[in-house]
Amino acid sequence: MNHLPQAWGRPRDDVYGPYDHSLVNQTAPISHTQSPAVTGTSVLGVKFKDGVVIAADNLDIKRLHVFPPSTILGFGGDVSDMQHISRLLNSLSIRENYSSTTGETPSLNAKNIHTYISKVLYKRRSDFNPLWNSILVAGFDNEDRPFLSLADLLGTTYSAPTLATGFGAHLAQPLLRKLVPEDENSVPNVTREQAVQAVQECLKVLWYRDARSTERYSIAIVTKDGIELKEDEKLEHQSWGFAEQIRGYGTQEL
Fold first, then answer.
1. DSSP assignment, residue 94?
2. Pairing of the two strands 157-159 and 51-57
3. 11: part of which helix (H) or strand (E)?
4. Whole-angstrom Cα distance, residue 228 to residue 222?
5. What is the pLDDT of residues 80-126, one digit of tens each?
6. Is 64 helix (H, G, I), strand (E, B) or coil?
7. Tens digit of pLDDT at every position of the chain (254 positions)
8. Positions marked catalytic
9. Which of 106, 84, 67, 74 lies closest to 32 in space, CA to CA?
10. How many angstroms from the chain centroid is the CA of residue 206?
11. Which of 7, 65, 169, 185 is least buried, going by the fewest C-beta atoms within 10 A?
12. Count H helices, E strands: the chain?
């Protein structure tokens, strides 16, 4: 092995012969990852009459990010892409602050942020270099109504009173929809306590059913008074004791 600083770690030329650079195809097309480092999957969101509740599990990393003054984003998918989008949003916030000429603090609402994120995701998808994330954006729209919408790696967007990413779209959405059976018409009848309880019950189901979830989670409640964010909550009253009664579980004899 060559120990010279300019070629450290390469085979020595006097032993193995000079390195053949023709072995490296310099004209190969640019490739992008098809194996993202996914940490955690499910992000859950529910509208209620005064705002939005959003939650995600804390498997290795916290995935709820605040965009002042009253917008919060929940990320599912690749960690590095999540960090890249967070840097873009920080830059956007700085530009908005410096571009204000009225002396007032500029405030991009949740609808503005969702539009920006969807354009970024669609542009990267069109470049065949997608950002491997599904993102929930929660807050308020231009008319100060509760806002909840999703954008995914294809740039696809849609809104609903209840949304979920990952396994939550299959396991939690049926439970959340019971809370708002008539879609937007049911939102004024949903209280903050009902929304929080429904999200916590769904997180409990995901902890039992989704191998990539954990009992630790973050939850945020967005109202016109601001964002109440708790990042190290723990599910209560959960137990795997029932599994011992299931035939075929563990080492019990059939």
1. H
2. unpaired
3. none
4. 6
5. 899 999 999 999 988 887 876 655 655 789 999 999 999 999 999 99
6. strand
7. 555 655 666 677 777 777 666 665 556 566 666 666 665 678 999 999 999 999 998 877 888 999 988 899 999 888 889 999 999 999 998 888 787 665 565 578 999 999 999 999 999 999 988 999 999 999 999 899 999 999 999 999 999 999 999 889 999 999 999 998 888 889 999 999 999 999 999 999 988 887 777 888 999 999 999 999 998 888 887 777 766 676 665 555 55
8. 33
9. 84
10. 15
11. 185
12. 6, 10
In one-letter notation, the amino acid at residue 59 is L
Distance in angstroms (rounded) separating the CA atoms of residues 25 and 239: 55
Q: Which residue matches tokens 């969101």?
A: 45
176-179: list long-range contacts, CB under 8 Å, 24+ apart: 176/44, 176/46, 176/202, 179/46
Kindly report the backbone phi and psi dihedral angles of residue 17, in degrees, each rounded to the nearest multiple of 5, phi listed first: 90, 165
The residue with tokens 């209280």 is 191
Question: First vs last Cα of the chain: how many Å apart?
Answer: 58
The two structure tokens encoding residue 174: 């049926």
In the three-class reduction of DSSP (H, G, I as helix; E, B as strand; rest coil), residue 66 is classed as strand
Residue 115: exposed, middle, or buried by beta-carbon count in 10 A (0-12, 13-18, 19+)?
A: middle
